[in-house]
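Problem 12. The chain below contains 314 residues. Write out its predicted structure in token notation.
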Amino acid sequence: MRIPNHTTVTEFILVGFSNHPNLQVPLFLIFLGVYTITLTGNMLIILVTSVDPALHSPMYFFLRNLASLEIGFTLVIVPKMLVNLLVENKIISFAGCASQLYFFFFFGTAECCLLTAMAYDRYVAICNPLRYPDIMNRRVCFQLAVVSWFSGFPVATVQMMWIFSLPFCGPNQVNHFFCDAPPMLELACADTSLFEIEALTATVLFVMFPFLLILVSYMRIITTILRMPSEEGRRKAFSTCSSHLVVVTLFYGTASSTYFRPKSSYSPDTKKLISLSYTVITPMLNPIIYSLRNKEVKGALRRTLGRKLFLRKM
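Solution.
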């Protein structure tokens, strides 16, 4: 795929957190710890939902896909950020910057759609439990997962091609820790209003429309739960979707504040903190939320780890 290039800029400098030189090493250690927890937690989710028969259900099939997306999402951003915290040369090539932006949009869009599929799964499970096995069969689950993953391709392609067809003829310092759309637009020496309209349209279609579907699903779910005669039934039904609701709130709450206002009035440090929340912190919290709030996952983790320890002792 060829990127239209009307620019004299051949590389960019990721400013990151270089305006806080005394915090470079502490930040490296903190983010390294967070990244290690993210990889370990999400790989454990993939492992236990794959090997434990008790977790071979649609909900955990989607959770396994979410964990895979989170690993890819952080892999695009965090390793480069960690390296830049330790070196003075924070250069990223033009193609490297375009690739990072492309895969950031790919994984972000895919996660939005996958969270919608997970909401639909909970809606069917709670609002139509008798038909749940028929509606959410293996073929339907596979199709929803494939659509979620492939939804990222058109969005990522259009966004990346549009941004990198803009002329970059002046400063090349990206005031961020990765190549994100808003700071890249600030470097373009051309009118970006048309792109901002396109970006807002893409945000509505691929971020807010899925969010509205999730919202409608949970309105129906809550209505159904409140109508349940048994308090134990209400508690159990709510516990099956509370983890997903927390994850949706964390992801959409922070991401929407950035992409509904590409050139917002937030300070650069505030923008970086907001971006950290959904690119670094949320992927770490997701496996923790799903494991701590879910007895089935905790039980599967104990069985899987116990089995490995038992085999090691033999």
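Discussion. The two ends are 53 Å apart (CA to CA). Students who got a different answer should revisit the alignment rule from Section 12.3.
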